[in-house]
Amino acid sequence: MDHCKYACGTAEHAVSRRSFLGAAAAGVTGVLGGFTAAASARDLAKAGKRVLTIFLSGGVSQLETWDPKPNTDTGGPFRAIPTSVPGIHISELLPHTAKQMTRMAIVRGVNTAEDEHGRGAVIMLTGRRTEPGIEYPHFGAVAAKLLGTGKAELPGHIQIHPGGGGSFNKQDAAFLGPRYASVVVGDGKPPADLFRPAGLTTEADRQREELRQKLNSRFAKSRRTAMTEAYAESYDQAAKVIARGDAFDVTKEDPKLADKYGRHDFGRHLLLARRLLEHGVTFVNVQHTNYDTHHENFDFHIEQLGEFDQPFAALLDDLADRGMLDSTLVVVMSEFGRTPRINHLYGRDHWSKAWSVALAGCGLKAGSVVGKTNANGTAVTDREVNGGHLFHTYLRAVGQDPTKNFYPNDRPVPIADPKASAITEILA
Amino acid sequence: MRLLPGDRLFAVLFASLCTAPAVLADGLSDRIDSLIAAGHRDYAANAAPIAGDDEFLRRATLDLSGRVPTATEIRTFLADRSPLKRVRAIDSLLASAECARRLEQYFDVMLMERRRDGKVTRAAWEEFLRSSFAANKPYDVLVREILSADGTNPATRGAAKFFLDRDLDPQIVTRDIARLFFGHNIQCSQCHDHPLVEDYKQDEYFGIQAFFNRTFLFPNSQAPTAVIAEKAEGEVSFTSVFDKAKLVKSTAPRVPGRSAVPDPKIEKGKEYAVAPARDVRPVPNYSRFARLATTIATGDNTAFRRTAANRWWAFLMGRGLIHPLDQDHTANPPSHPELLELLADEFAAHKFDVKWLLREIAMSRTYQRSSEPVPSSKDLGPDRFAVAPLKPLTPEQFAYALMQATGFTDAERTALGANFSDAALHARLAPNAAPFLNVFGARPGETEDKFAATLDQTLFLKHGGTVRNLIAPRAGSLVDRAAKLTDVDALADELFLSVLTRLPTTDERKDVADALKTVPNRSVALTEVVWALVASAEFRFNH
Amino acid sequence: MAAPIDFKQTRVGLELKHTSPLIGCRFDPSGRYLFVSAQDDTLQRFDLLTGRKTAMLGHQSWVRGIAFSPTTAEAGPLHLSPPANGLGALALVAARPASSFTLVTGDYHGKLIWWDGAADTPAPVRTVLAHDGWCRAVAMSSDGKTVASCGNDHLVKLWSAADGKPVRTLEGHDSPVYNVAFHPTGSRLVSCDLKGVIKDWDLSTGKVVRELDAKVLHKYDTGFRADIGGARGMAFSADGATLACTGITNVSNAFAGIGNPIVVQFDWKDGKPKQLKPKEAYQGTGWGVALHPAGFTIAAGGAANGRIWFWVGDENVHKVDVPVNCHDMAVHPSGTALAIAGHNGTAIIYTMLAAATPAKK
Fold first, then answer.
1. Which other chains touch chain B, taking contact as 3+ CB pairs less than 8 Å apart?
2. β pairing state of A157-161 and A183-186
3. SS3 string of C235-266?
4. Does B456 touch chain A if contact means CB atoms closer than 8 Å?
5. How far is the alpha carbon of A37 from chain C, nearest alpha carbon, in Å?
6. Which of A119, B75, C102, C276 would suit a FRET pair with B513, their CA atoms being 20 to 30 Å apart?
7. How far apart are CA C219 and CA C225, in angstroms?
8. Which residue has the higher pLDDT, A152 or B205?
């Protein structure tokens, strides 16, 4: 039961811890994508598309979620249950989600061929395998760049992490620049020091900012660099975020709605994600941890999916109720799936050869399934896809052309891996 | 004939009166300048002029003492007519207690990368480093002490932090020895020859590891009092993951560029001075571990002296001649190969005298150039060193500079009165620096190499209690001092000299006057003016 | 109990092979059969008298709960000796023919199935949907009248053994209930949940009389944000004076299963717990525990491989290495042998009978 074959942890072999922490930083001038005022859902719908990803950290089992194989040597003890779409069954661990199938699409033939956490995450987040010498922007940065309106006051790319404090991720935007790097909201709490301290009046704040900017302008005349620009810009960004601070305050949501999402961390984080999207954030990722069940896979999936299921269903209901589902792409992903073979600890190990990803909302053919695995789930038998295909599909779903290029250093870099293409079977 | 700045010329002349002519002829700082100038055919036409006194003193003080100069220091320096004042300033900075502290902090972050303290207390480690730099301990000796410390001697346990607070993890220790002392990032070589860097082989990785593959933590890896113990047997073995035949290889201890260190023949039964037994720390008669430090940290080890010179160069110049610092290999040659060789050789020849090396670099025109390029000049790129770089303040520099600029340090010094000592003052300042390290520092185990201005940092500066507390008026602080000045121009001068180490422009004087007019309470008004100064980009960088 | 027992001579007697990893194992009260459950959703009955292996089909999920109606006849010692029979290398002497008995099994779909355990090919007699989610354990009262089951729905349920009718639901746990056991003499029942909370229920009132603390068996792993725990094995001594639970403790990494097996043993009278630990450091989970009539405690479990531990008092005086992770352990009603359920599909029967010539140390 090798946790990972190489205990390497290099940039090549793992997503740096920093990349889950990061920084907005040196670079481009301008502002982040978003909205000038608390936008109503209707305005939002008109304004554009947005994305919510839920990352089930550690590698969720496809057999205990989207592709159950009950009563086989690999199936484990759980049943498959019918969903709201006739003929489609998912694991009994997702009873609320099963009722949402009419809004969802499942991709069952995923083969990402990478069983190491860090590199698996890179594939799922960038749509490409790790390549030496180049880092590609994560989905969130790409979405913030392509879907952002350019008027945003809140960051376009937010990560909600289960624990820890707020921080910034300087690496996940890669060549798109720190403008699209993620703001990390630890445990759903607003960033520290977001609010102006007592004793500092609006007017005093305005005056001191004016003076600071004058000093910066003088300095920038002869010493302008990407670093000074980034530093100056961070104050502009901060001012905008401060003005919209209540977007981070999930307690402003209807308590009855909060009950539906569930009164636990993940429920609260998912509700916050929806709130942020509604306030004009382009991309939010919510991490749910942890699924790396080398030991007692079944017990742990009961616990983790028990926490995932109801909030996820509540989220889709809520997005639909607000008219946001048609313009919001929801993706449930992981680094990889888990081995069909059950190990001697009732665990399942890392498995990328045949697993599943679930989607909902914007641009999808609702209630569809694409791809098949064999009887005991050990191989894809129909419509095999990899991270590149998924990345193309996400972008198509939100109305973007993934075959276009970015131009870092004036060099064309295809937005999505040109070796792959969208999974059109599940696109509307 | 090159143009020398006036005081520099005098410095050289002065030096010639006081020291042997050979030193003048070999003046390393001149040779640095020649080799840098030779590094680009358009260098002379595009190099920035020598920095003004205010720019120089701010830069050197931040680099060598970790804070900005006091208003008195900059006033005195500006008024000083001596052509020797820059070299005197450098010497005085290098001799200061603050310099030892600054080097300690820099070295701590470089070696420990903000790992959490575990088996070795921060105090012991800091004291080990501080006293080493205060005594100007030769760099090779310092490194040997660190790489040979097993933690058994309570008096020198601080030196064992490098190993013990990495939990003696063979992967991490091997990787970090190679990065920090050989400039080789060979982590990939753990599993296979480096796929991208031809020079980095799996043998190198395991050759280093073989020096301590027999070591373990005694009594166990969890004990906070654990020490390094060693067995008399055990070999490293490795297989390339790319090798289909799965050939298992081994290697004797060796480091790049040097021959292997084979084990001597030991008579059977005589392997141990103290034999292994339950609850007994074994001591082998032959220790591979003891050979580690003496094999790595010596002047005849090319990789060691190159890396040492490169890292100290980067300390002052903001980037290495080899850049990144841990990518020394044929496909990533130094920007100025001859210069690197010169620095490495001279550093070794001068018995790894750190302060001598820093002095020579700091005296160079290359170091003393302005960070403002000539408007019409071409940007030759940062690796040509034609213009002084903007170096973001380290979290420590930012904290201590801010404490000095706001007069918090002065107020604490005043409060200490007769009890003042560098250590006593430090004890009062350090707790106020801690939040800066937390917000601006890298994650544990990560290298602080890139500048990022993040929302959390900006909010910390804008709204955080730490910064507001440092600026708040108290006896002897900047706001307090300035508020007492009736002449508004003098007041503006005091503010700008204290924070930005320069005099304000006419417009800036007016801005200060305007701020005082609109807010009736002078202290309140000044508090926010000082905030604007410390929050400016000009303060954030060493330029 | 005439047969001389020396647990220090514990040795392999018989290997009973199945094709799917085993989950549970129990001897019937007569000592003639070993029942095992496997990941292929079947139960397998090994007849130790004839060597016959019989598949019992009916569950559609994994079975961990196995309980029997009591027998009045005392089981004879299990003698395992060289002459070959259908079981392989070893033969069995003196296990008594069993009369008809009821077997109740519980599975991870929450179902209970009643079987005639001695039937030629046992088939489900009755099926009861007992729990929402997993049924984790089944027990039978010593008078044979009541079946108890427990599960992931946080409930303990009592059933009439005769007709499968619900008798009572015991509510109070706030996490999945891992195990349940009847006190052998009194009218009390204990149940232990994921968090190591043991509830002592008065069966006449259905109320909790007291709680026993086995929380050492539980940990919330903050790194993985998940709970690990529960009594994987639970048993009373025959006289009811002692209750033992086993599981995993000191968990440092729940998802890799890094922790140590432990037995928590309670003095029934005062409810005071005692921790029984392996003498030699061991990583893994305790999956089965028994209090031997001769006064020692046995537990088995494992991780990469398996191990059986023997304690006298709270001193671990002996261990036996097992080549496979033991997912369950059962002691033969005669006390002369024990069985483990191996992950490799093999049940191994170990004899504890003293050899004619004592084994040399």
1. A
2. parallel
3. EECCCCCEEEEEEEEEEEECCCCEEEEEEEEE
4. yes
5. 37
6. B75
7. 10
8. B205
